[in-house]
Amino acid sequence: MLRVGGCTAMTLLTLFYATLLGMIAKVSADAYPYSTTWVPKPSSLPQKSEDKQIGTNSCGTGSNQTSMCQNLYINSATDFCLWGGPGPVAKGVGEWEREVVSYCTKSGRGTRLIPDGTLKSVHFVKTPHYVQVSGLGSFDKMFFTNAGGGGELDPHGPDEMGNPRGGLVFSNAFGHGLMQVHEWNSFMDDKSYFL
């Protein structure tokens, strides 16, 4: 396996493409008009935000490891969520992409919690225009295997319904309170992540 400065080729390639896609999303944000912006309060989110969505956006405030919540939060290095498989069997990211659910570092959002020992490193970047979190981990407890070599998740997907269908992302990192992030990308495999 090729390594550069302790990073695998997959990690470097993922970071390169994620940075490139982040720049493209910034330039093309107006190309995808949204008719709905959800206010991220438990009482205001719909049960489902897209047709044929397998999970929910009305997640409540508890946390449990069988939650089907499909809302992510990215606020800081200690307060963020990642997509993971709903289980009970582990699959590759590409096999789960329509059905992934939220795993968060903090409780109280109706999501699953990232299992102890999963995250091996966390790198958080905040600019005036975007935030990102990336790092290494062992995502078998979040039902991801190395099958297919990883995958990319975004709010569009092949049919503009998103991968996962109905997945919503929120952040308070921009100083305006909690708000919906319309353009986002997530790259994951069984050992690295980038959101």
From TrEMBL:
The keyword Signal applies. Keywords: Signal. This is Uncharacterized protein. It comes from the Eukaryota. Residues 1-29 form the signal peptide. Residues 42-61 are annotated as: Disordered.
